[in-house]
Specification:
The chain has 497 residues and is an alpha/beta fold. The chain is built from 14 helices and 17 strands. The protein has an 8-stranded mixed beta sheet with strand order 7-8-10-9-13-17-14-15, with helices on both faces. A 6-stranded mixed beta sheet has the order 1-6-5-2-4-3, with helices on both faces.
Length: 497
């Protein structure tokens, strides 16, 4: 049975059981509350640090089992490095580091949120708690055989702070973010035989309980609207395509919404232009953009964000059936523009073209941001540390870069402009859906830009960050939930004023 986390805040104290985790700076100095808790241990920490050459550098740890003088089973010292240089994202990371040092067999742990030079403020203690939550996530619902050293059914993690009420208040919004990231990760990690388009749409209906309005467009509805590009991608699948529209109205009535659009290809074989067999199983995650949008909408609703927001996802399955779209087919998009399909594996841009136009025409948003595991080329360019950012609006792009640094979900701006138009010119239609190998991520974004008119727009290519990205101190999941924290912070900092 998977372990559940019971996370709570408590006043500073010296725990009498379980695991005790404390923080020090790069001079092995502790805060006042930590020094008090460690007094019974005498010079144990100093001697252990010397023996292990532990210097307190950021995210390094010193582990002492059965520490003499203390009643706990284990003492863990986590280095915070230079305290004055710590940023918000560092506290989230340190929370993840701390959680990662709690043995699987432990049932009780206390993290003292304290540092030299003035302690830890409530907001930063809440960030530690967010890091704990994110690190705890595991997707193991399909594992039926327990391990021999099965973990306890519940682990209690207490974060000791100076003011419980202030920390709990600060943590409220972080808890909503953690829940949103968890939802996004769950959706990405689900296998495609479980999470197909109709089931994905059904799960989104669960947001109604939080006050989110959810509208599901089926195939007849989309056909009536003229979403032929989206429908063309899914026409080879036994599972019918869907488009789901989510609305959270937390702002003033009549104020234009902000809009988020996600690519939701529940499984991508490549269609007739079929992918190689190696690693095709990863294509269950080709809906990570849509998963982020759903997780974000849940977060905004759960924390009652003072903003009007629209989330829209195009959900399809790209299969090589006898009814499937062929290379050379020409589709007429909802906007009236035509696209020649050169490669059926370049399907995400077809899905997004119709959804972007639909959202722009119907809701007239302040801006539109789309997320998609769109191109392998962005992984070649940026690896898995940054998402690719393409935009027609400098202010929106600058804000995304800034909140990316704050949250640790980093983005890097890439060019998009008329210099690349020739690569997507078609002999038979307004454009073709691929522009060749050179600048593949850019030409994909350029296609999307033709469906946003003059609305401020940003495209985030999360192929390298949304699925299979390197695991770190706050993510041990194949599906990372990338984008939920980034976009929630964008809304909070700039659009709830």
């Amino acid at each position: 049975m998977p372990t559940t986390l019971k996370l709570e805040f408590e006043r500073f104290s010296t725990p009498a059981r379980g695991v005790l985790i404390v923080f020090c700076d790069d001079g092995l100095k502790f805060g006042a509350a930590t020094r008090k808790a460690l007094e019974p241990a005498g010079d144990l920490v100093t001697r252990a640090a010397a023996a292990e050459r532990f210097k307190g550098k950021n995210a390094t740890t010193l582990d002492i089992v059965a520490p003499a003088g203390l009643a706990v089973d284990r003492l863990v010292i986590v280095g915070a490095g230079k305290v004055r240089a710590l940023k918000e994202s560092d506290f989230v990371k340190l929370g993840g580091v701390a959680m990662g040092k709690i043995p699987s067999a432990a049932a009780d742990a206390t993290i003292i949120a304290d540092l030299p030079g003035g302690g830890v403020k409530p907001d930063r203690a809440a960030d530690l708690a967010l890091g704990v939550r994110l690190r705890t996530y595991a997707f193991d619902r399909y594992k039926t055989k327990p391990k021999e050293d099965e973990s306890p059914k519940e682990i209690r993690v207490a974060i000791a702070v100076a003011s419980v009420a202030a920390a709990e208040k600060a943590y409220g919004s972080r808890a909503a973010v953690a829940d949103g990231v968890t939802l996004a990760r769950d959706l990405v990690n689900e296998p495609a035989n479980v999470l197909y388009p109709e089931e994905f749409a059904h799960r989104v209906l669960g947001l109604k309980k939080l006050g989110v309005s959810v509208e599901v467009l089926d195939v007849p509805a989309m056909r009536k609207l003229g979403m032929n590009a989206l429908l063309g991608v899914g026409q080879g699948s036994e599972h019918e395509s869907r488009c789901v529209i989510m609305r959270w109205n937390g702002g003033k009535k009549g104020v234009d919404p902000v809009a988020f659009i996600g690519k939701g290809v529940c499984f991508d074989t490549g269609g007739i232009s079929i992918k190689p067999a190696a690693n095709m199983e990863d294509m269950k995650g080709d809906m990570a953009g849509a998963a982020c949008v759903v997780g974000l909408m849940q977060t905004l609703a759960a924390r009652e964000a003072k903003v009007n927001a629209v989330g829209a996802i195009g959900i399809v399955e790209n299969m090589p059936d006898g009814k499937a779209q062929r290379p050379g087919d020409i589709v007429k998009t909802m906007s009236g523009q035509t696209i020649e399909v050169i490669n059926t594996d370049a399907e995400g841009r077809l899905v997004l073209a119709d959804v972007l136009h639909y959202v722009n025409k119907r809701f007239k948003p302040k801006f539109m941001i789309d997320l998609a595991t769109l191109t392998g080329a962005i992984i070649i360019a940026l690896g898995s540390e940054y998402a690719g950012l393409f935009s027609n609006d400098d202010r929106l792009a600058e804000r995304l870069v800034k909140v990316g640094r704050l949250t640790g979900e980093k983005v890097w701006r890439m060019p998009v402009g008329p210099e690349y138009d020739k690569q997507i010119e078609s002999k038979f239609a307004d454009m073709k859906n691929v522009g060749g190998r050179p600048a593949g991520s850019i030409t994909a974004a350029l296609i999307l830009s033709r469906f946003v008119d003059k609305t401020p727009w940003a495209h985030l290519d999360i192929a390298g960050t949304g699925i299979g990205s390197p695991q770190n101190d706050i993510n041990k999941s194949w599906g990372s939930g990338f984008g939920v924290r980034l976009l929630d912070r964008l809304v909070a900092d700039y659009y709830e004023k």
